[in-house]
Amino acid sequence: MVNEGKASLFCKHLNDTCPSSKATYLNAQNSAKQAGLGIWNSRKPWQKARVFN
Length: 53
Hints:
elongated; single chain
């Protein structure tokens, strides 16, 4: 989910994971941010309202 931009990390709990998993999650979030995926999409397509006449 993090890799697809459908979730963000909660760093408080990230410190409880093993170091290799922590790096994997951080890399996945950074990749999703750079690609503008999901919640990192600056256009926020889910907020566009349809206008019906």
